[in-house]
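Aim 2 progress update. The chain analyzed this quarter is reproduced below.
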Amino acid sequence: MTWSLRTPFTALRQRAWGRRALEPGELLYVAIGDSSAQGIGARDLDAGYVGLLAARLQRQTGHTVRVVNLSRYGARLTDALERQLPLLNGLEPDLVTVAIGANDMSTFDAERFAAEFAALLTELPDHAIVADLPCFHFGDRESDAAAASHLITDLVRARGLAFAPLHRVTEKRRGWGSFPEFTWDQFHPSPLGYRVWESAFAGAVTRRARALISAAP
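Predicted C-alpha cells:
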C-alpha cells in the first residue's frame, strides 16, 4: 500500500528490514508484499503484522525466527513477480506470507489482476499463506477490493494454499469506530490495525507452526 507522499522513513524502514534479514534464526520466515508488509504506520518492525507473525511463529514453535522481508513500498503484483519472487529462489523458508494487490486497485482490471495473481501463486511453495485485500471501507475502491478478494480466494483455493481472510476480518470493523486502527494518513494500519491484520493470518500460521513441530526430527 502506498502513501501519497514519500518520506525518508520508507527508505529507513527498508534498510532496517535488510539488517533484520542478517540476524540468525532457526526458522526462516519470508514475507512478500507492499508497504503494509513493511509495517509503515508502526514505529518499529515488531509492531507490524510481519513482526507480529514472526513472534507468533517463535512463540508457538519454541525456535528463533529469521525474517527476510522482500516487500517493497508501493509494490504492485508486477513488482512481486519481477522483483520479489526472484529473491525467493534459493531460499528454503519455513513460512511464507503474501499480502499484495491493494496498490493495483487504482487501475483495477479484473482479467489482468487474476492472470498476474495466478502467476504469482504458481511460484510459491506449497505451505505459503496468502491473504486477499483489506477492506477499503468506502467508495469505488472498496467495490474493486471486494471483487479482487473474491478472485484471490478462488485462486488460492484452486492452488491448494492456505488462505488468510484479510478482507473479511477488516470488513467486520468497517466504520468510524475503526479510526484508531489507521495511522495519520488514514490509509496504512496503526499498531492496533496491524494486530487486526495479524489476526487474519493467525490460524494459518498456527497450523503451519504445528506442522513444523510435527516434522521436526
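The chain has a mean pLDDT of 91. Residues 8-212 form a domain with the Rossmann fold fold (CATH 3.40.50.1110). These observations will guide the mutagenesis experiments scheduled for the next reporting period.
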